[in-house]
Amino acid sequence: MDKKTYIKKLSNGIKCLFISTGNDGLIQIDVNIRTGMYHEDNDTLGLSHFLEHLNGYFLSKKYQDGRQMEEKLNYYGTFSNAFTTDYLTSYWIKGQKKNFDIYLDIISNSFNEFHLDKTLFKQEKNAVIEELQSLKSEKWNKADEKISKILYPKHIESKSLEDEIKNVKRASINNILKLRQKYYKAHNTLIVVTGDFNINSMWKMIRDSKFSKIVASEENPIPFPLLKYDYKGPRLVYTKIGNTDSTRLQFIYKTHFDAFSNKKYALDLLNSCLCHDFDARLYKILRMDKGLIYSISSDISLDNQDSDMGEYELSVEISFKNVEDVIKYVAIELKKLTEKMITKKEMTKCKNIFLTKKLDMSLTQDFEKYAGFYANSVMWKGKVIKFEDEFKKYDKVTREDIINLAKELFDKDNVLIAYSGEKKMTKKIEKLSLDRFTW
Ligand SMILES: [Zn+2]
């Protein structure tokens, strides 16, 4: 299932990860830079995303024309794109092995001698604003922003899309170049080559490319602000959202561990036990026994760097008349997990889910999956974490680990109940709801 990997470093400090997938004739090169929304402040809000759009055109001193570049990339039948996350900006080209020298020339030039075209700047400023406007008009956005302000005050995560739009609107070319200068440095960058290659000749090609011409930079990671805020629950928050028949009800628990913690695996299993299938605890009660919901979604979001940024969220969209009952039953089920160990049968079932996922994973040749997963571990842990080892961690979780995690997590101090929709509950019911989550 796992692929052969090599980690090397150019003399200027750029790290390179090579993932060999076999003789399939396909190859992909990614440039990953440690910069994203969590590195931003009031002045730079939204600019990593804006810059990511510009990266996606692969322009450089050598290749200055956006349309010609489009033509060139399409002529060779390549796929290419760019994305940015909280801590990462990435752009990549994927295509046939025989043309790799061309992709390498394009991408290494655009990294080393980035070219910013004025017309493109205007065009992409509008594109980013349009993109943000459309996110802003999503049904539950107002509620999501309110929740972020409560859980992550003063952190960049608490900024609204409106704040971001305003800042992107006033951004100048200089602002973008300044941000780029600060983060697009050799030691802050990881190049990933995935696919069909011979490591010796590939390493030589990279060394001979424009990536080697970038000036060396100091080794220290560039800092970013941590959350440094201790949320105190229980709290209940209501957001009025008009023009809807449904009420969205969310149970959010703050976690205090990062994405590499062993507790992550216990939480994955616990989450499966609650809502993986119709046989899972919350589905069984809310849908099968009581007929209160159609579906339940859950989300585990853990941070690579900041253990206080994580949360576990359960969410349902229901009729207002069912809100009180759903709150009652969810509270009962979560409390049970803190009092009594899950059964051996449940544990086996939950582990089987991840065993199947592992087998499924072993069938895939999906480059993004390998490049994404391995690169993530190299960037944040300095080494490749193998899928094989990752899945072994599920097997090591015990029923004691699950109950201990439930006790730690499902604590009144960590909980935020959020509901959004047309109608607000009475004060009395709000109080009763909060009381149910205090044990
Ligand atoms: Zn975008």
Task: Please describe what this structure looks like.
The chain is of the alpha+beta class. The protein has 2 domains: 4-213, Metalloenzyme, LuxS/M16 peptidase-like (Cytochrome Bc1 Complex, Chain A, domain 1), CATH 3.30.830.10; 235-435, Cytochrome Bc1 Complex, Chain A, domain 1. Helix content is 45%, strand content 17%. The protein is built from 16 helices and 11 strands. It has helices at 47-55, 66-75, 100-112, 118-136, 141-151, 161-170, 173-183, 199-207, 263-275, 281-289, 323-339, 344-363, 367-381, 387-396, 399-409, 427-436; strands at 4-9, 15-20, 26-33, 79-84, 89-96, 189-195, 235-240, 247-254, 296-301, 311-318, 415-421. The strands form 2 sheets. Strands 1-2-6-3-5-4 form a 6-stranded mixed β-sheet, sandwiched between helices. Strands 7-11-8-10-9 form a 5-stranded mixed β-sheet, sandwiched between helices. Helix 1 (47-55) crosses helix 4 (118-136), helix 11 packs across helix 15 and helix 12 packs antiparallel against helix 14. It is globular. The two termini are 44 Å apart. The mean pLDDT is 95. It binds zinc ion. Zinc ion is lined by residues 49, 53, 128, 131. Zinc ion binds at residues 49, 53, 128, 131.
